[in-house]
């Protein structure tokens, strides 16, 4: 198949910050002399004390440590709010669009200042101080942003937990971060359906046990009557009335933690990815400006949830550091109609739109009419994130949503990277549908083979990054050894991304997906080990193995092989019960799409489950199972193949 290439339009090379020559020159400068490059870029934020030590990073093998701007002091909330008050106090900072289209509001930078200060004062009055952890379990309402920024203002470390996670998952995160303070809402609202957030918090605290959580701040969203524990729980609107709209900012060292965000890995429980203050802010602000070609006056919309890193970096911190107008959407793409995204774009004259391939694929199914009946003429640029975008979805996004006139920035990055690492720049980079294209400034990607040999030119292998960038995670919260093991031991001296990739003759990168036991379901990361441990916790399950399989809309679906306890019967009932069980244990995003009851799993003689074979069966590639001679009992494979579950 001939590769399609989209040139940069003349209009774009004129309007953008950089053209191709500009990109190349700046990239060269950034990797040749990172110290000098980042010293200059650090000036884009306000420092109370300017950093003089710029880069102090070591990828090992010994003493892995990452420090940027380490003698500088600043405050993220100051940069995202206070700094803008003189110049853009009356400009809209956040456009909030509710689940119901009749509800929306605009919050100016001055109002944001007032709200965040109140939230910070409410927290401070209840003992929250620099270095304390705060769990935020919220719907997509402005108070979620206020809570995050309030933590940043006080120097507290937020841990946002996605509102779709179960009480158990929430409890695990509260315990790991030892958070005494929780911010939540009575209920969430998505697609017209209510989510019992406060009830889930109560259940999570119950599970965590006494002595950890002292305060629960409850924002009224739906007004539902919820259980309020005297002395522990307080309504935000009531508490906010009692405090002032001014609150001093804490002076933070560049390397003081800003937040923890839990993410799935290939083994064990989710890791608390820790990001710090100065480098993260410089990096997210810079990428937001260049990748989205953000200019003053633009309306920018990222459809992610603040429970994921994309929401942290590109709804909140990057945009607000740049004094942008950022849109925050509470709802879902299909409610009240399948035109919702495009209606919101017209309603608020959105110029830059950033979403996930899974959303595009599901909207594609309804055809062009729901899109074409809207104007979308305000749109200038489209973005994609979360998983590889297949060329068909790319083309549809480009032709139908963007009317063929908007470049698409396919941005590759991770919770761990803090910000975008591989991406087109809209005025500089020719686009190839399905490729994240070229590295951002300061980023040194390499393709390595299984032995760690660096491959040059056109190559396919695993993606590593050879040197540090300011937005990189610093450690796994409370477990630096796990950080070193996970990211720096596979290829000593390099950061291992966990992704496979191909580099083509033009030096473009094509991410091929995870090479570890992480699957990507609708852009959400799931460790197969987490789903397995939820399944085996069920009293009727003896063993479980979980793999991904290609799914038309979700990208990957969850395929679970389950062996039952002796005497248990595989029934349709039990299948449903197990799906419901996993939803309850982890949350709806982890629901298995297919469950196959298997009398036995393929194992090596040493008892290791051979996932390679399970993956092939789930992918419908029976003819290509590879070497099965090392199996303890080759007969189990026949049964597995015969009883393969059909997709959807
Ligand atoms: C930001 C985010 C990270 C994993 C990553 C990769 C996949 C993200 C992608 C992409 C291909 C892209 N991924 N963006 N794959 N093209 N543009 O999604 O963070 O939730 O930590 O997921 O997502 O596999 O390793 P996170």
From TrEMBL:
Gene Ontology terms: biological process: acetyl-CoA biosynthetic process from acetate
Q: What residue stretches are annotated with the AMP-binding enzyme C-terminal domain?
A: 530-608
Keywords for this protein: Acetylation, ATP-binding, Ligase, Magnesium, Metal-binding, Nucleotide-binding
| Sequence positions that bind CoA | 190-193, 310, 522, 583
What is the similarity comment for this entry?
Belongs to the ATP-dependent AMP-binding enzyme family.
Could you tell me which NCBIfam families the record lists for this protein?
A: Ac_CoA_lig_AcsA, PRK00174.1
What's the stated role of this polypeptide? Catalyzes the conversion of acetate into acetyl-CoA (AcCoA), an essential intermediate at the junction of anabolic and catabolic pathways. AcsA undergoes a two-step reaction. In the first half reaction, AcsA combines acetate with ATP to form acetyl-adenylate (AcAMP) intermediate. In the second half reaction, it can then transfer the acetyl group from AcAMP to the sulfhydryl group of CoA, forming the product AcCoA.
Protein's recorded name: Acetyl-coenzyme A synthetase
């Amino acid at each position: 198949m001939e590769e399609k290439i989209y040139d940069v339009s003349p209009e774009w090379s004129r309007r953008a910050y950089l053209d191709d020559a500009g990109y190349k020159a700046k990239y060269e400068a950034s990797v040749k002399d990172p110290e000098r490059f980042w010293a200059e870029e650090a000036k884009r934020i306000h420092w109370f004390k300017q950093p003089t030590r710029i880069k102090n990073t070591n990828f090992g093998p010994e003493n892995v440590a990452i420090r940027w701007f380490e003698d500088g002091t600043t405050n993220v909330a100051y940069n995202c709010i206070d700094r803008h008050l003189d110049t853009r106090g009356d400009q809209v900072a956040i456009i909030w669009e509710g689940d119901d289209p009749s509800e929306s509001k605009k919050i100016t930078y001055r109002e944001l200042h007032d709200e965040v200060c109140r939230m910070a004062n409410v927290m401070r009055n209840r003992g929250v101080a620099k270095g304390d952890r705060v769990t935020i379990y919220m719907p997509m309402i402005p108070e979620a942003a206020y809570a995050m920024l309030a933590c940043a203002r006080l120097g507290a470390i937020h841990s946002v937990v996605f509102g779709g996670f179960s009480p158990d998952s929430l409890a695990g995160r509260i315990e790991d971060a030892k958070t005494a303070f929780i911010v939540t809402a009575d209920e969430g609202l998505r697609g017209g359906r209510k989510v019992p957030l406060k009830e889930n918090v109560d259940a999570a605290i119950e599970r965590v046990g006494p002595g950890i959580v002292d305060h629960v701040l409850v924002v009224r969203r739906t007004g539902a009557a919820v259980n309020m524990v005297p002395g522990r729980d307080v309504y935000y609107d009531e508490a906010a009335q009692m405090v002032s709209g001014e609150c001093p900012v804490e002076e933070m060292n560049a390397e003081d933690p800003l937040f923890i965000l839990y993410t799935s890995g290939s083994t064990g429980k989710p890791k608390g990815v820790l990001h710090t203050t100065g480098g993260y802010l410089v990096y997210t602000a810079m990428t937001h400006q260049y990748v989205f070609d953000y200019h003053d006056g633009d309306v920018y919309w990222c459809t992610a949830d603040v429970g994921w890193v994309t929401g942290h970096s590109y709804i909140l911190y990057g945009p607000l550091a740049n004094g942008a107008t950022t849109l925050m959407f509470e709802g879902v793409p299909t409610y009240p109609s399948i035109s919702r995204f495009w209606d919101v774009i017209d309603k608020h004259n959105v110029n830059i739109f950033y979403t996930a391939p899974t959303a595009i694929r599901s909207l594609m199914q309804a055809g062009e009419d729901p899109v074409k009946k809207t104007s979308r003429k305000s749109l200038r640029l489209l973005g994609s994130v979360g998983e590889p975008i297949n060329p068909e979805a790319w083309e549809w996004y480009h032709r139908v949503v963007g009317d063929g006139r908007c470049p698409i920035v396919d941005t590759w990055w991770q919770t761990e990277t803090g910000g975008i690492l591989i991406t087109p720049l809209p005025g500089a980079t020719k686009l190839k549908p399905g490729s994240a294209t070229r590295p951002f400034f300061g980023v040194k990607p390499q393709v390595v083979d299984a032995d760690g040999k660096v491959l040059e030119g056109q190559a396919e292998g695993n993606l590593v990054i050879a040197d540090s960038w300011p937005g990189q995670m610093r450690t796994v919260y409370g477990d630096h050894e796990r950080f070193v093991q996970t990211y720096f031991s596979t290829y000593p001296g390099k950061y291992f991304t966990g992704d496979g990739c191909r580099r083509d003759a033009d030096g473009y990168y094509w991410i091929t997906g995870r090479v570890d036991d992480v699957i990507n379901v609708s852009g959400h990361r799931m460790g197969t080990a987490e789903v397995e441990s939820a399944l085996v916790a069920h009293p009727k399950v003896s063993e479980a193995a979980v793999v991904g399989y290609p799914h038309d809309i979700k990208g990957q679906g969850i395929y679970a092989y389950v062996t039952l306890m002796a005497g248990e019967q595989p029934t349709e009932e039990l299948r449903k019960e197990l799906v419901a069980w996993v939803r309850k244990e982890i949350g709806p995003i982890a629901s298995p799409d297919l469950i196959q009851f298997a009398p036995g799993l393929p194992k090596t003689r040493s008892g290791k489950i051979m996932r390679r074979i399970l993956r092939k069966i789930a992918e419908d590639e029976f003819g290509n199972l590879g070497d099965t001679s090392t199996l303890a009992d080759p007969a189990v494979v026949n049964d597995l193949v015969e009883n393969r579950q059909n997709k959807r």
